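$ run holo --ligand "iron/sulfur cluster" --emit tokens
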Amino acid sequence: MGLSPQWQLRERTSMARLPDRGAGDTEPPRVATTPVPMVAEAPSLATGTVREQAIARMDWAALQRDVAACRACGLCQQRRQAVLGVGDTGADWLFIGEGPGAEEDARGEPFVGPAGKLLDAMLAAIDLRRGDDVYIANAVKCRPPGNRTPESAEMVACAPYLKRQIALLQPRLIVLLGRAAAHALLGNQGSLASLRGQTFSYPEPAGESGGIPMLVTYHPAYLLRTLPDKAKAWEDLCRARALMRQAKSNARPSV
Ligand code: SF4
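-- output --
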């Protein structure tokens, strides 16, 4: 455990189609998922409120249909298809990335490219696998052109879907993969380095019953380019595993 994990790209397992942004994921000068154009305008408050209320009542099937037809931001213009996310809808673990990459956009599945394979390896390192107690979603459901990072307005427009996914899942732990995902959930523009090592709560502030713990780590696409940081990601995964154990322990009814 003191050693860097031997994460290797693996052949895709049968399970899951998880979300991911393709090879465009990057961290620092992060050029997250896809390309660029995009002029997404934030939805008006009135429209947003009505839309958000409607989305907040959707079940998984309705969410899938609505996302597929969504045109709430400019990312709809160049997508092949929207990618809601995939995995176990009863999962304790929720991993959130940035947005679909080219391969995800083509296949309609998240995290299916090299970054997705690395994510598989990361999950395996903590005895998880996609589709089995794990759900993966993205901050935006449509591929940003050029694998660029989603803009704030795009993440705001797509936020009701992610919010509904979290409400339906009720995960015990949320792992934010990369800066864009962190910013989408935390509204925090801090660097990834400043966000790592902290435990956040969803929602923030937590309600009376407490919130869902969240932590931030590197996006697999970034790790593909920055191998030395794999050791830090391993630290984050170990902390995530400890937080999950704690969450499950806290949930045990006292006897
Ligand atoms: S990214 Fe989200 S808000 Fe924008 S068009 Fe796609 S589904 Fe709609």
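-- notes --
The beta strands are 85-87, 93-97, 134-138, 173-177, 200-202, 212-217.
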